[in-house]
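User: My instructor asked us to take a sequence, write out its structure as tokens, and then describe one feature of it. I'm not sure where to start. Here is the sequence I was given:
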Amino acid sequence: MTGIEPQLWVQGANAAVTFYQGAFDAVVLHRVGDGDDIVAQLGVRDARFWVTEANENMKRYSPRAIGGTTGRTLLVVDEPEAFLRQAVTAGASETASVCDEHGWRLGRIVDPFGNEWEIGRPLDNWPPSENGLHEWFDDLGVVGEASAYGARLGVGVVRVRWRSNVPRPGNEPFGRQ
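Assistant: Let's start with the prediction itself. The structure tokens for your sequence are:
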């Protein structure tokens, strides 16, 4: 078995669990401890993540403690508009409404504990095939070349060499490779 399950460090872990239950219909799969001194594994449909209290002594800082965040969590769902509305109703702040962007339909929120979330779904098969990458680049108005080797392997990282007709400052065109 292979998987990645992020652990969110928050101030007010018990309240965070309650928020995620209301915002994302999260289900508590595992929980140990009492009050805010907890470790809880939550499930949102097929996705799982953990919530625990931040602890400065262990150098586990919450977004509130550092005045920002060091990452964003992507919650993949079939109906991003409904999940975003539900999260905002539960107390999240909408930072970007749901729209089509970079091959995804997604919106962004910040939860009451300072964690950033993208809520969305791919518009088509993901990751895109090599042909799909060329179409995506064309939609962006940029010409790119994907590594056929990377696409054949089915890896999520594809090397891209960008070329564009957008002029540089001073109106010199970008060079062609």
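For the description part of your assignment, you could build on this observation: The chain has two domains: 7-122, 126-177. Try explaining in your own words what that tells you about the chain.
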